[in-house]
Amino acid sequence: MEYRLMGNTGVSVSRLCLGTMTFGKETDEAGAHKQLDMFVEAGGNFVDTADVYNAGESERIIGRWLAQEPGRADSLVIATKGRFPTFEHPNGLGLSRKHLTQALDASLTRLGVDRIDLYQVHAFDPLTPLEETLRFFDDAVSAGKIGYFGLSNFIGWQIAAISELAAATDRVAPVLLQPQYNLLTRYIELEIIPACLEYGIGIIPWSPLGGGWLTGKYQRNSAPSGASRLGEDPKRGMENYEERNADERVWRILDEVKAVADEAGLTMAQVALTWTADRPAVTAPILGNRTTEQLAEALKIADVHLDDAHAERLDEVSAPELPDYPYGTRGEQQRSRKITGGR
């Protein structure tokens, strides 16, 4: 297993992060504990969860696994998140000091630990001043309840705003961002990744397999039975399938992933994970496996890299289709500058 630094910190984390959103729903407790054992045995040390994953059951399952061996948590980097509704009252959600204090304490209890290594805000909150959220994190770090804090689903200007405010007020700054990123969804490259590179923030992408599409399990004009992993119910999953089935760009990308997989002796899922893991600013893609068999396949790319030719082919076929301005050719001309002068 390769290791990388967690953003602009000295903390080493595994190249792959074990996601646990399935724990307590699609994956029962015994299966979850097997996944955790397998991940650690392969050298993984980075585990991500959230307080709203299956109403806190994901955290409880991890907590009971941690309790099986004294000191087990010390060798791991445990990450969780807060922001979405966890209490049935008006202040039971958001990034206010009141809610985050309650959410953090509840996560500590469910996980059975005294400190969470990485505590992330699950999304932006337009109603809470960033100053209030930053003061909460500064105090939580000083109190020893968390080691570092991160963001999830923030966009470019929000990343810049909170990072600049942290620097201006001498408070702790975010070290990681958790966005959606994969060969089918690359729009974070326009402003989000540049913001992360500017502020030394690492990226831990969720859905690196595009909700299962990049595994090759879906076929053109052959609707899947049941729900797609891209949705939480059959109706939403089918709507997503119909939209992507009609998108020729999706099938061009899948065809190229399949061709690269055949040439490299990998599965389509392994190719997609490897591509994401080696993108600029990426620290570790988050695995969202339901079974130990799926996890075992993912772990085979713990130290695998695509050759330059394969990576370039995937870059080219999956390049986002952009409007001419501000992100296309005309926009690039407005932002470029030659050393020798002229356009």
What share of residues is helical? 25-40%
Q: Judging by the overall fold, what is the CATH architecture?
A: Alpha-Beta Barrel
What is the approximate shape? globular
Instruction: Tell me the strand percentage band.
Output: 5-15%
Q: In terms of structural class, how would the helical and strand content be classed?
A: alpha/beta
Radius of gyration: 20 Å
Number of helices: 12
For this structure, the CATH topology is: TIM Barrel
Specify the CATH homologous superfamily. NADP-dependent oxidoreductase domain
Low-confidence stretches: 226-233
- On the 0 to 100 scale, the average pLDDT is 93
Q: What's the end-to-end separation, in Å? A: 46 Å
N-to-C SSE series? EEEHEHEHEHEHEHEHHHEHHH
> How many domains?
1
* Biggest sheet architecture: 8 strands, parallel
Going across the biggest sheet, name each strand in turn: 9-8-7-6-5-4-3-10
Q: What is the CATH level 1 assignment?
A: Alpha Beta
Number of strands: 10
Key words describing this protein structure:
single chain; about 350 residues; alpha/beta; TIM Barrel; eight-stranded parallel beta sheet; two-stranded antiparallel sheet; 10 strands; about 10% strand; globular
What does it look like?
The chain has one domain: NADP-dependent oxidoreductase domain (TIM Barrel, Alpha-Beta Barrel). Helices cover 40% and strands 11% of the residues. The chain has twelve helices and ten strands. An eight-stranded parallel beta sheet has the order 9-8-7-6-5-4-3-10, covered by helices on one side. Strands 1-2 form a two-stranded antiparallel sheet. 43% of the residues are buried.
